[in-house]
Write a structure and sequence with these properties.
With about 280 residues, this protein is α+β, with helices and mostly antiparallel strands. It folds into two domains: about 1-150, Regulatory protein AraC (Jelly Rolls), CATH 2.60.120.280; about 160-265, Arc Repressor Mutant, subunit A, CATH 1.10.10. It is built from ten helices and eleven strands. It has helices spanning about 1-15, 115-120, 135-150, 165-175, 185-190, 195-205, 210-230, 235-240, 245-255, 260-280; strands at about 25-30, 35-40, 45-50, 55, 60-65, 70, 80, 90-95, 110, 130, 160. The longest helix is centred in the C-terminal third of the chain and has 21 residues, at about 260-280. The chain is globular and about 65 Å long. It starts with a helix and ends with a helix. About 25% of the residues are buried. It comes from Flavobacterium agrisoli.
Length: about 280
């Protein structure tokens, strides 16, 4: 069963570039468990519903929450790992045009507004190559064309992969203790660093401070818990080490541009819409 599953993966990945001029469409409605490292000549728009998808490139792990999309430029090696089989992934692969907007050359994660959501839901029944001159090609091209105009904030939902094993050990410790309050000076002491040398190691290896890394990791964990819908916002704040709900809410807002409660409400709206779509199609 597993081998056949990977054959299907490979089949559609190989098909992406077979017609250089088409826009290729692939929707995975069941959430495959893992798509191994690969790359394609076409750029990819990967939109997720239902749960979190981890996208790993050579240097970073991107954390793609439901109702967001990631833009992966042409030629970037990446693997895709949905967190659960609740994930629905919608993929559009676009040929690279001459003199494209700079937007298309950068990896990035963006929230999906109502306009883009409706356009993505419209692609529900498409599959395979959309060829130039067809109505679907025109609609898909419009989806691509609108992105630089509506996607103005590239969300910092990625964490760099550490190269130094000493730092990797510290990051694993942080991962396992997100519910505790972790202080930089305590970490330095515990792992045998002076604060100054650990600060330097963070900056050199992952290009951000301990506090930046720790804050993003806590918010990413909070998104997972919000999507699980088992805990209240207060309980989620505690699970990721915040004793104050307003502080948690403000931090979440700084990174995602919306409050945890808004994030939950919009997720509910999407579920209702997706159910209606399923009934009407």
């Amino acid at each position: 069963m597993e081998a056949a599953h990977h054959k299907v993966d490979k089949y559609y990945i190989d098909k992406v570039d077979s017609d250089k001029k088409s826009i290729y469409c692939h929707h995975d409605l069941m959430g495959e468990l893992f798509i191994p490292t690969h790359k394609h000549e076409k750029a990819q728009l990967l939109y997720a519903e239902g749960d979190v998808v981890f996208v790993t490139t050579e240097t970073k792990t991107y954390f793609l929450p439901a109702r967001h999309f990631i833009w992966i430029p042409s030629g970037v090696s990446h693997s895709i790992h949905p967190k659960s089989d609740k994930v629905i992934m919608r993929n559009l692969y676009f040929p690279v045009e001459a003199k494209e907007n700079e937007f298309y050359q950068e990896e990035g994660i963006y929230p999906v507004n109502n306009l883009l959501l409706q356009m993505m839901l419209f692609t529900n029944r498409w599959n395979g190559d959309l060829t130039k001159g067809s109505p679907n090609f025109t609609i898909a091209s419009a989806i691509k064309a609108i992105l630089p105009q509506i996607c103005l904030v590239n969300l910092p939902l990625e964490l760099p992969l550490p190269k130094d094993e000493r730092l990797a050990k510290i990051l694993r410790y942080i991962e396992s203790n997100l519910g505790e309050t972790i202080l930089f000076e305590d970490i330095a002491k515990q792992f045998g660093f002076s604060e100054r040398s650990l600060y330097r190691l963070f900056q050199k290896d992952v290009g951000m401070s301990f506090m930046q890394y720790y804050t993003i990791r806590r918010v990413l964990k909070a998104i997972e818990l919000l999507l699980d819908e088992k805990l209240s916002i207060k309980e989620i704040a505690q699970e990721v080490g915040y004793s104050s709900v307003p502080t948690f809410s403000n931090t979440f807002y700084k990174i995602l541009g919306q409050r945890p409660s808004d994030y939950l409400n919009r997720e509910e709206i999407l579920k209702k819409r997706t159910r209606i779509e399923g009934v009407t199609h």
